[in-house]
Structure formats: structure tokens, C-alpha cells
Amino acid sequence: MFGLRCAVKHTTSFLPGCTDSLMLRSQRFLSKMNENLLSVGRDMKVHDNIIKSAEDKRFYRGLELKNGMKVVLVSDPTTDKSAAAMCVNVGYMSDPSELPGLAHFCEHMLFLGTEKFPNENDYTKFLSEHGGGSNASTTTERTTYYFDVTPEYFPGALDRFAQFFIKPLFNEDSTDREVKAVDSEHEKNLQSDAWRFDQLEKSSAKSGHPFRKFGTGNRMTLDILPKQKGINVRDELLKFHSKWYSANVMTLAVIGKESLNELQTLVENLFSDVVNKNVQVPVYTDHPYQKDEVTVKDYVVPIKDLRQLAINFPIPNYHDYYTAGPVNYLSHLIGHEGSGSLLSELRTKGWCNNLSGGTRGDVKGFDVFCISVDLTEEGIEHIDDIVYLVFQYINMLRKEGPQRWVFDEHAELLNMHFRFKDKSSPTSTVNSISHKLLDYPFEDVLFGSYKLTDWRPDLITELLGYLRPDNVRVSVVGKKFQTLADKKEEWYGTEYKLEKIEPSVIERWSDGCVNSMLHLPDKNEFIPSDFDLAPRDESHKFPIIIQENDFCRAWYKQDDEYFLPKANIRFEFLSPLAYQDPLNCNLTYMFVILFKDALLEYAYAAQLAGLRWELTNTKYGMVLGIGGYNHKQKVFLEKIMDKMVKFEVDPKRFAILKESYIRTLKNFDSEQPYQHVNYYVSVLLSEHSWTKTELLEATEQLTVDVLEEFIKKLLSKMHVESFVHGNVNKAGSLELVSTVMDRLRDSVGL
To answer: Where is the Peptidase M16 C-terminal domain (predicted)?
Structure first.
């Protein structure tokens, strides 16, 4: 029942290589295709209306091939990798009821040889020899395949990729091995709370609904039970592929150094032979959570020592109204972290550390609005009170009514983020586009998730109408429910107890009261208005030192590649005290998390306005990083440093965050084996490292007084190394350095 989305993933990565003869063959291949362009493309539709960011230097073109496949071409002469992604609009909700995991099994088997390239290792070998890698994932309604490769070998890789969707072999000899591979994936996930909670949520859906299905599959569902029932899994796999893998439900995205015309040639010749079976994709408008599945509460036992609360509301899917964004509007307000927010009040009461609001969004016909709360020790004893507070916030939103200024501010921020969007990696680009082709028209395939143009208060009011006590599902996660649990989920063995919520509790939640401490957020003071580029200094190929003394060394490089109104600032506070022993390591960590916790409400507005910031502890001290729009970075940095040099420890928050830290250290024992291996390898390869066991033992000495004394020593004995890069010239960089050094010097005598 917990509001998490999980994808079934199959990943393979490869090492780079190079073969000149293959490169020459690929070039001849491309040349031959150019000769055939006109003969292939008579029935194709071209879409040259794709809206892109003003700062985006890539070129885009949409195609609808004669077989109905939708394609977006991305030409980027500067890319270091070429990539492609195919999204097939079918997932595990289309699995036959007697074969859970068949869509995922199909994803595995598809990679293993085609009629044109029958060697089952040909694709992976080609990629591994030419700097590439591949991946695939299966979700509720989609299966995605993608790869990247060194650009000169893109035609050969794309040819091999295309054949998976034309004539795959599905070799019978590979069946048993891939069933074992699927089973291994499932075994790996058995100890993952995220997978366990997600399947439990699905398992509690309406009986017979396809949302309940077990999407990963395992040896039991794909081998043992089918044999007992006389089902030939490979035959069923062929039927599944034949039924659903059709060009008209496939969306392809490719990116390469080639021109749009050259990419079009490649795609037309390679993918026009994918058969169009005119498949009609199922639309699941029947909601999995109806009258019998709401006003329920379940108590879930986790693997790790977690304390979480999920408050879920079944709602329709509002994606068709993406330009009005009613879900965006409510997610923005309910998940807000500033003054007057739900999170602010819960933190004041000491009941939670974090809160988020949003929708699952993984099935087109229905949706679930989820409010997730990370609980404190005290908070898990006040579940009904927390839910009551949530309804008080919702009541406040109803009373205030939809606010045009909130919508306009959010729309302004989204437009700004789209205008100055950072360049994404080739694989991220094609993955995103291949999915968005199923969600948006061609013109909005890049812009759609940023496009808020239609003010529809009626839709906001309608959506609020679903957030009612008689339409709620509550899930509480905690080790304390071990003795209460009386059920086990079928596939993961998650222990839980499910019960109806008492009518008296529903009545209390429905009283319509408004809490005076809850209110709409203030207008965002961090929204930048100056997007001009800084005056140019003399260009340098590499960063240069602009200040150096006993206390500080400052590096700087003005951006000469992207020319965006953004900058990245990094200050490394170096001190031998920070990692001197396990206690000091813990003290540095506690200072960092308490400092970020204290700055949360103020910094949240900056984050919404595109100012990212982070403070982390390292073996050498602490690192402060700020990135994003440079207009108000100095103001933000001043606030951070003022708070840092005058920081006072809040005893209540100290107790809460110390307990959370200790729990995190203990939870390491419940991590998966590969995570243990990765951790201990890093410990062995480090010159010096404190183990989690040593850190845990040292937490006994953590007190408020010890921390306050340590902070004074830490800030007074450090050297600062800084680097400023982006839309900042030398003078501006020196101002930022002075902002930090002056405050340290004046306050702690550095």
C-alpha cells in the first residue's frame, strides 16, 4: 500500500573498445542507406514543430513511420555517445494471469539473438567492443530497451537493436537460463523494503484487477507452476510477443552526431520493417481501489528499522490536463517545506523529519495521490493525529480556494527551468523522449512536463474533492508492528495487518477544522530576474588561482561553453579535526545534518527557484556546494554563512536526528550483499576509514554540549579551498570568496 513506484530492471554494462574495420563497414552502411531514402519514406509523416529550449543547441525532428511507429531524432554534433531507446506500450499488467512475470521475461529473452544476427551474444559483444552498454526495464504498462555506443559505431549498433523488434529468435536453449536470471533478480529484491511495500500496495487492490499482478516473476511463476499446469512458457512467450509487440505501440528516440537527414535515413531503413499489428492498448479506467479498498489502515513490518506513514487517495488520472496541472498545484502545496506548511508543523511537533506529496503516475487510466511521511519515534505514536493534521491542511486549501498567484509562480518557475535546462546525457535524453512520446503530442515531447498555460481552478477543486477521509488508505511501517501482524504478502513475505478505520476516527478527520498554524506559502523571494551573462574576462582553458594565502586558496573559471545564467560554487572546509577519530567523524556529521535541518524552510524557496545547495561531511572536513541560477547565489551564500558561524544546536532536533543516524548505521546490516561488498571494498582501498561499527560505538559519546564545543573548534581550525565556475567573472568570484572568508574571520577568528 506504500506509495512507491518500482521498475523491473535488467542491466548490462560494458567496457570500451575499437575496431577500424567495423567503423569502415558502418560508414559504408550509412552511405548505402542514403541511396534508399526516397524509396522508403513515401508514407512517412514529418513533425518539425517540436518545441525546444531557447538555449538547446541540439536539433530535433519527429517522424511517424509508415508502420505507425513514432520516432524522435536528435542531432548533436558534439555528443560523445550515440544512443537509442525503444519504449513498447505494454508491461506486466498485460501478463497472462497464469504467468506472472511474462512481460519481464520477454524483456530478457529479446536480447538473445535475431535472424539477422543469430549469435545470442552479438549485440552485447558489439557494444562492449565499442564503448557501449545496454539496459532494459519493465513497468506496469511499458517495456523500455536502450543502449549507447561510440558514435562511429552507431549504425551497426542500431541495426542490431532494430532486429530485436523485427525477428527475434527467442532461442529455446536460452529459456531455462533466463528464467534463472529473472529468479535471481527477484531473490535480490526480496530484502528490499521498497519492492516489498510496492507489491503489498498492489496486492491490496481490488480482487481480479491487473494492477495486483506480480510483475517481476520468478522460477515458481515461470517454470515450476507452468510445468505443473502443462503450460509451455516459450510458446506463451511467442504468443505474448506476437500479440503485443507492434509498431503502432512503439516509440523510438535516437541521438547521434549525424544530421537529422542522416538519422532519418538510418531509422527509416532499419525500423520500417517492424510489423504493425494495429494493437489496441488496454486502458484501465476501472480503479483498483474502490469502496471496499478505502478507509483501511495497514501496519507493515519492514526489513530495516524504518518508520514511515503513507496517506493515499485513489483519484482519476489527470494527465490529459497537463497544461492545467491540477496535480502539480496540489503536490507543490502539500509537499511544501516552508513556513506554514504541513511539514513545518509536523517538525515543530517532533513527529516527522521529511514529507512529500505527489502521484504514482504509472498507469494512464487511474492514479493515486500519495503523501509520504518519514516518522520520528514520537511520530509513530501519533498516526491518527498526523492524518488529522493532513486533513486540516486540506481544509485550509479548500477554504482559501485555488490561488491564481500560486499557479502563475509555479508556471513561471517551470518556464524558467525549461528555458535554461541543463543538457542531459544521451541515454537520459532518449529514455525520456521515448516515454514522453506516449504521453504528449510531438510538439510537447520536450516541453510537456514544463507546460503550465491553462488556469483551471475547477480541476483543482475537483481534485481536492477526492482528498477526503472516506476515500483514504493509510499505511504505517514500523518494526513495532511485528507482534501485531497476522498476514503475509504472497510474493515477498511481507508481514502486515490490515483493518478498517473506525467510523469515529473518520468522523474526527471529517470535522472540517482549520489549524491556524497552517497557511499558504509566501511568495518566493529567490526567483531570479537577471539572466544576463557576466562581463567576459580573459579566457583560460583551465581553472586559475585568483587568491591564495594561509587560510584560503580560490580557483576560478568563467564558463566558455554553455553560456547560461548559472554557476557552480564549491567551498571545501579542510580540518584535521573532522575525521580524527570516530567521535569527531560523528560530530562533524551531526553538525552537517543539524545545520541543513535548521536551514530547511529558508532554503526550500531557493531550491524551488533553481538554487541547489548541499553540505556534506568528508574525511577532510566539509564541502559546501551551491549550483543553479547565479543571480541570487550571493544572497543565499550570505544567509548560509551567517547561520553557520552563529549556529546553535536545538536539543530537540539533536535528539531526533541522533536517533535517526543511529538507526541508519544499524540498518546497514540489512542492506543487500552487493552493497556490503561495495562498502568494504571502499574501506579497504581507503588510506584511513572508520567502519560503521566503530562509528556506532562512538555515538554513545554524542551530546549537545560536546557538539557545541566541537563546532567552535572545527570552524576555527580550517583551511578553505574554493572553486567558482559558470556565469561569474573574476571580480564576482572574489566577492563570493570574501563572503565566506570575512564571516569566518570575524566570527571565529580564522
So the answer is: 234-412
